[in-house]
Every structure is written in structure tokens, then in C-alpha cells.
Specification:
Blueprint lengths: L12 E2 L5 E2 L13 H10 L1 H17 L2 H7 L1 H9 L12 H27 L2 H20 L4 H29 L5 H26 L6 H7 L2 H13 L4 H6 L3 H12 L5 H15 L3 H8 L5 H16 L2 H16 L4 H26 L1 H26 L9 H19 L2 H11 L6 H30 L2 H20 L12 H7 L4 H5 L1 H22 L5 H9 L2
Antiparallel strand pairs: 1-2
Main location: membrane
InterPro entries: MFS_dom (IPR020846), MFS_STP/MST-like_plant (IPR044778), MFS_sugar_transport-like (IPR005828), MFS_trans_sf (IPR036259), STP/PLT_plant (IPR045262), Sugar/inositol_transpt (IPR003663), Sugar_transporter_CS (IPR005829)
GO molecular function: monosaccharide transmembrane transporter activity; symporter activity
Length: 552
Amino acid sequence: MRAKAGDQVPLVAQNSDGGIKPGGRVQHYTGHMTVYVLVVALVSATGGMLFGFDIGIVGGVEAMASFQQQFFPDIYAKTTSGVSDDPYCKFHDTRLQLFSAIMFLSGAIIALPAGYAARVVGRKKTMTVSGCFFLLGAGLQAGANNLTQLIVGRSILGFGVGTAACVVPVYIAEVAPFASRGGLAYLFQVATTVGILAAQLVNYGTQYIPDWGWRLSLGLAAMPASILCLGGLVLPESPSYLIEKGQWSQGKAILQKLRGTDEVDAEYADICDAAQQAAKTSNLQSWKNLVSRQNLPMFVMSSSLAAFQQLTGINAIIFYAPVMFESLSGSSSALMNAVVIGATNVVSTFVGLLLVDRWGRRPLLIQGGLQMMASQIATAVLLALAYHPHTTTIATGPAVACLVLICLFVAGFAWSWGPIVWVLGAEIQTLDTRTSGMSAVVAANYLLSFVIGQSFLSMLCSMQWGTFVFFAGWNLVMTVWVYFLLPETMNIPIEDTAYACLFARHPVWSRVMGKSGRAVLEREGFRAAAWREARGSEGGDLRQLHKYYDQM
């Protein structure tokens, strides 16, 4: 019996605790984690490793005497003269901040065309282009003889970073089995943290190479860039993209290979439904749909979380950890401290990998936000008490305590706000808005990264320990934001519109969505009933089912 108007057949049901669990076709998904899909995700996640390498390499290079002497002689004079100076201001230089931050400005600029490219020419070709940007940027930086060449090279790296950030999380989300999507999407952040640690280890070694050690550090980004370029040529295209472009048989064949089974009808039907809608949507209409009342909650949450991620202060710490420790403690082991922070980042990200599909996204974001806030407040108090008038460094004990607190901050970020922002940004968008939505996420994230990277050393010089209080305040704001406005999204299939249903049932977002939210719930009830009817009649005819949906 077919569903009729007015029938109460919800796609999503409520758990006993009031939470929402998926319904509809998801219980008929038969795919599982395969070695093939893991390899595909690992190769594509190389884009995250490049991202992390280019974040982590810059702070250590800036702390090298040969680099300072060639590009920033004023800073070199201050660090080698032995003249007493305010340690908070030792590395304060707007050109140094520009070198660190320009990558994110160019990444934000490329985000919109990168999202367009991912939708028009495909995910894998766009990944290949990002790898080429990385190769070119690394070569220009390694061979730079003046600051202009250095900044141009880093800007081109930013094009690679922005392109990879737009396409890699989307690609991984689309090839991953829905029950393991959170863990596989974490690979982008895992690769990012591994890249950061690799960069810090490289810097620790190249600091002992006089004159050209910094060139080796900057040029080594070409190695993972080559993997991304070649990987983009051999990886399979996303089934969602192929089906959206009308290549149904090829899309289904790749889906079967990714899932390790021929029984993919339920998931294939969900992708076809989403693709039929996406195929009717122009690129301009995709942006209009992104801010429609039906999709506005997902757009607001994904973009706001992306901006909040940078307001944690994480990139400021990763960028400037070596120069900050050299300024505050006068320690010759500043680069080793950065390695300790990088190792903490990697280990903690793996902890999050184990928890994201068990505990869920929302609890980790709340816990991580509170841990980061507490660590930053404690760091501010420690620095305020450790410094005295006319002192230029702090004692070894407080310096070690400061390192421990920063590691606690990094750990809280690494298992929560670091990866989950990218997971949510890719998974909660509908297929017709996914690439444009991810472009908005990247643009918001990178614009804030640029602002903070360009201003952190100035803030440290003027606000001193108050800089950490500033970021602690933002951690409180974003934790409250998640507590009241983000529903749990664990175990929701990516091609299902159950995400819209989650927000349509939310006490705040339901008011924003209005009639469109109620229409989503009603339509999905009909679709769920139709699928059950088709499955009940000897498996049904998927083509007839798709035709039935189009007539709704």
C-alpha cells in the first residue's frame, strides 16, 4: 500500500532518549569497510598531509638564523645582539606575519572556483590540480632569493591548500561507508597532523645545515605533492559525481567495488535520488539553494564551526610555537618543543579517530572546547605570574609547565574541533549544495586563519598573556553555540536527507526552516514508505521507484 498525503510515516525515528535515529533505506545498506576504500581514502588524504606540512614548516623556518639573516635582518639583529627587549615583541614584524598568513588568503580566494571545478570536472581531477599547485609553490619557495619570491611561492601553495581542502573531505565522505564515514573523514585531519609533525622533525634536522637548511625544509613539500598528483590520476572518481553526470553504470560499478559487495541497491537508490535533484541545479542555483530556508541551518552551522575552529587559536600556536618558545624561554630547544607539540597533535587525533563514530560529533566538540578554554586560561595565569619587570625570559620550570598546558590545549583540539569541523562540513550538505557548501566552509576557515596569522604576533606584543584569555573566551562562545544549536549527526547516510530532518526537528532550527522543514519531513515519510513497498514486492524496480519519487 502506497503512502498517501497526510500519512505519518517519518523517515527518521526518535530514540528512547529523544535523539534521532535514521530510518528509510539505511537499514538496507550492505556495504562495509574494505581495504580498497581505505587505500583510496589514504591516498586522497595526502592533501591533508601537504596542508599540515605547510602549516608546520613555517614557524621552524622563521626561527632559523640563516633564514632570518637573509629575509628578516631586523629580527636577526634582535635575536643575536643580546640586547634586552620585551620577549613578547621580539618577533613582532608585519612582513613575517604576512609570510606565515598569506597562504590562507590565497586559499580563501581559490575556494569558490575550486568548489565549482569539483562539481564540473570532478573530484579526482581537482585533486590533481591541487597537487600541481603544491609542486609549483614548493619549488618557488625553495629557490627564493628575496621576500617577494618567497611570498609568491607561499601564495601558490595557498591555492593548493584551498583546492585540496575543498575537494578532499567531500571525496572521502562520498566514497566512505556511512557507518565509518566519521573515521575515514578523520583521515584528512590525521594526515594534517602527521604533516605538521613531519615538518617539525624536518626543521629540527635542517637547523644544523648552515645557509641552505631552510631551503630544504620548504622544498620537501614536493614529495607528498607528487603523491597527490599521481594519486589523482589513478584514484576512482566519486560515485556521487558520476551518477550526477549520468554515468549510472560506471558509478554503480565503482560503488560496488568500494563497498566490497554487489548488493548496493539501497545506497545506489539514495545517491540516484540526490543526483536527480543535483542534476537539475545550476551552479548559481546551488549557491541559492545553499542559503534557502531548507538548507540555511546546515550552511550556518558548517560555516560558523569553520570560523570558530580558527578562533580556538590553534593555527597561531602551530605557526609560531618555535618563535614563541624562543621568545618566552630563551631556550635553544625551541624546535624540539615544537616537535613535542606536533607529536601530541598526532596521538590525540588518533584518539579522536577511535571515538568519533562511538561517542558522536557533538559530545567531542563540547568536551574539546571546554578543555581548550581551561588550558588557555591556565597558560595566561602562568605567564602573568612568571614574568616580572625587566625580565626577558621565564625560568625553566614555568617554561615546561607552559609547554604542558599548550600540549593539553592541542590535544583537546586534535580530537574534536580539528577534524570534526571538516567531517561536518562535508557530510551535512545535500549533493546539489555539497561543493558550494564546502567552498563556503573553506573560505570562512581560511579568512579567519589569515586574519589570526597576520595579527597573532601583534596581539602577543600588545596584549601579552591576555592573548590567551582572548582565545579562551572564544572557546567558551563556540562551546555554548554547539550545545544549543548542533544536533548529533553520527550514523546518518550522506545521500539521505535525514540531515535536513534532524534540523527540521530541532527546537531552534525548525523555526528557521518553517514550512520547508515540515515539507522535508513529509516528503521523506513518503519516500521511506515507497522504498518499503518496493522492497516488499520482490525487491521492486528501482527505475520505477525513481520515477515515482520524481512525481512527488
